[in-house]
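ok so heres the complex, two chains, lmk if somethin looks off
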Amino acid sequence: MPGVTDDNTSTAQPFRQLRVGIAGLGLMGGSLALALRGQVRLLHGLDRDAATRRRALREGVVDSAEAMLTAGSPPLDLLVLALPVRAIVQMLDNLPALRPAGCGVLDLGSAKRVVVAAMSALPEHFEAIGGHPLCGKETSGLAAASADLYRGQRFVLCPTARTTGAIRDRALALIEAIGARPILLDADEHDVILAATSHLPYVISATLMRSVVEKRQWSLSASGFRDVSRLAGGEPQVMLDILLTNRDELLAALARYRADLDFFQEALERGDERALAGWIAAAHAAHAAYRREGGIA
Amino acid sequence: MPGVTDDNTSTAQPFRQLRVGIAGLGLMGGSLALALRGQVRLLHGLDRDAATRRRALREGVVDSAEAMLTAGSPPLDLLVLALPVRAIVQMLDNLPALRPAGCGVLDLGSAKRVVVAAMSALPEHFEAIGGHPLCGKETSGLAAASADLYRGQRFVLCPTARTTGAIRDRALALIEAIGARPILLDADEHDVILAATSHLPYVISATLMRSVVEKRQWSLSASGFRDVSRLAGGEPQVMLDILLTNRDELLAALARYRADLDFFQEALERGDERALAGWIAAAHAAHAAYRREGGIA
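and the predicted structre for the whole thing:
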């Protein structure tokens, strides 16, 4: 029967024998396929865009491709969902109908609570674990994909009610195969931290880019502006889904950010040199601590 | 008489014959000295820090060095002020007493209105032009200086009431000598634009860094966080002087930024998908336009 994975043998199945499906052949999914090329038995791509599928096949990124997962799709031992977060959740909701015998599932979404909830709601014969590789680019699509996107980067794994030892080991083997570094973390904790270190930075970066566009003020800008505004280039659908699915944590991080911006603004309005100097010194010390404690260069 | 520059001959004086003083041997002044090495007759450094002076002399960054400019300092054809903005203004105020015969002056400060005002108030036998090279680093000090910091970068020149053709040509020759690209711009316009593209980005970058320091949330961060928070590492005294001397324009830019952040936050609180999608799409389009229209890579 197509699509059957025998859970009792999955643990022992060597990584090289895996048939891996990747839903979404954009920057993340395409890079994953490139990184896994030659290391697994089958790479089967799923992407709604015909031009992307043609390109992926022509360049050998995947062995086979189709627009969407159906009951007639080839058997897959591991399905990796490299889609915007709400598309991941929707696919998880549809999965029991498409894979009645179950399969192994991993995702790459940047908000984990909603994904882990949807994975936990899968029937018991599914094995699923949430994933979030901490890497990306300000460009998107298969054309921007590269085999080394994940190399050396951290890859968060979030347990679900459907996380078995087998799926965890399989995810760890995949992370090793692409050269990334695994971190096991609770989804709630993940979403609180990533709101502060990724989702809020996107918002402030996009706000900055929006603030100069009317007058094209970037004509007089340098590397500082380039770096602080870089995240504004993030794929719109991906960003929209992250912001909406991690809304509460993002709003909390934004409130803290704005309270500190209030403090700064009031000190500047007063011309309060002492308060400003303290504020700046603390930011400078924080940056030094970040660099010292593992801030990536 | 030491310190005399004959204005009538200065135009004709070849660049290689210039005796150049650089006040401040930090990242900007040190890099300028390295870039000018071998291209002028004398490089004389002024820096209050004895260790910096020793290092600059030991490494041949300058030919001679002393703690501060005095009436007994060697004659200088061009004095470049590579100091925090308020220190530049203070030195300009003291200059008539130290160089009674006048001299050529250029500065490298990031806020130009106050500097241009102080230059314009110099006695008539001084020649002075405001300058702002659009480059930098998140590290500071002579140890971070490099001969190619200015190469290919834009270098704004702002006319003052003391700007003669001779000092403008001399500044242009210096800009050419260090491989930068000159832009002539009014100081008011400079300060409006730089508030939006440099000073505001510093503030939002520093606020972000401050917002994660308590819980060390950067332990789960990637290249996006690194880039958006990078400016928090700017030299504190340099940043304090910029914020205080370009306060009104920065507050105006901050007000526009916060109004847009209000819009975003309210849309997110309402879960207004359509408003958020439009906001994100406009940021994405702005980033693409920035890249297309000369955003530096």
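quick notes: Chain A touches chain B through 90 residues (CB under 8 Å). thats all i got rn
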